[in-house]
Design a protein that fits this description.
alpha/beta, Rossmann fold, 2 domains, 6-stranded parallel sheet, 11 helices, 12 strands
């Protein structure tokens, strides 16, 4: 069986689709699985062993007829038997219908549901509780159309061995023998502005408070392509800060895995931390913690979210964050 998932969005969206991919593979172990994703999000599949083929396609662009024709040709040539998509546009429905995919699945709220062979309810867009449904569970609901109905597995990633080796060597060089606090002061590449970034002054306050309360706990800044500017600015003013410069998603995951606490904006780093079961404190602007973080199980407080009242991460006061850290 050949199964194709078409998932618009960034790296976080791909990671949140991992539980669905995991259960597809469990139910159909011999299936060949392909995904169609934004070019910038293809890197997510470095930490997955489930997917056989990653096809880049710019969902967010004003695609030309030739762009759609190229994707249609791929779908036809590989003769996918099942297509599952979170893209609700009529163009995607038409493409999958023209591609001759026998089973075409999306949400009932799609622009052209009649172009699909099965649709499932999507409680988010029309619900009064928008933002209260865990996004990974929303994606997982699509599998009901192929007779997979949970319970949904936890979000998990597979870190390549060479990235684990790299992280171990870095920790040895930095002499991180007994844990560390990892701070990610940037945001996903392409997410610019106060909606996704916390200001440098706020990070300085957080760092100073951690130093005062936990003087023996090293503070490490995670540097990625999305956080280099912020990291360099903080490091230039504070020589005691350590920097872990990850060149790919696997290296970032391996550094996250060794932390005692990860402090991050709503980002793919937050999703990696959740997947690796690391204690996580995340800052939220537009999105809500219940939408983007795994639901609390019992008394577990492994994943905590601080939500801005204005929808802008920059408006969260450092005192509010620190109260959550030391109180939680």
């Amino acid at each position: 069986m050949r199964i194709l998932a078409l998932v618009p969005g960034g790296i976080s969206d791909q990671l949140l689709f991992f539980p669905a991919l995991d259960d597809i593979k469990r139910a159909y172990p011999n299936a060949e699985i392909g995904v169609v994703v934004e070019p910038k999000a293809t890197v997510a599949y470095r930490v997955s062993k489930i997917v056989d083929t990653v096809i880049p396609f710019t969902f967010s662009a004003a695609n030309s007829p030739s762009d759609w024709a190229n994707l249609l040709g791929i779908v036809r040539d590989r003769e996918y038997e099942v297509a599952i998509t979170t893209d609700l546009s009529w163009k995607m429905g038409l493409l999958l219908w023209l591609g001759g995919v026998p089973a075409r699945i999306t949400y009932r709220t799609a622009d052209a549901p009649w172009l699909y062979t099965a649709t499932v309810p999507d409680p988010v867009p029309d619900s009064s509780t928008v933002g209260d449904r865990y996004q990974a569970q929303r994606y997982y609901d699509l599998l009901k159309a192929i007779n997979i109905d949970g319970p949904m597995p936890d979000l998990a990633v597979n870190v390549p061995e060479k990235d684990v080796t790299w992280a171990n060597a870095l920790r040895d060089r930095l002499e991180l023998k007994s844990g560390y606090v990892l701070m990610y002061p940037g945001a996903d590449t392409g997410h610019i502005g106060s909606e996704f970034q916390y200001p440098l002054a706020g990070w300085k306050t957080l760092i100073a408070d951690f130093r005062a309360k936990q003087p023996n706990m090293p503070i490490v800044l995670l540097q990625t392509s999305g956080s280099a500017v912020q990291v360099n600015a903080l490091k230039s003013e504070d020589s005691q800060l350590m920097v872990a410069a990850a060149e790919n998603l696997g290296q970032a995951a391996a550094i996250v895995a060794g932390a005692d606490l990860v402090l991050t904006p709503d980002s793919y780093v937050m999703q990696l931390s959740a997947a690796l079961k690391v204690f996580t404190l995340a800052l939220f602007g537009k999105n809500s913690p219940t939408e983007m973080l795994p639901p609390v199980k019992g008394d577990e407080t492994r994943f905590l979210g601080v939500a801005s009242e204005t929808g802008q991460i920059a408006d969260i006061q450092p005192e509010t964050i620190l109260q959550k850290v030391w109180g939680g």
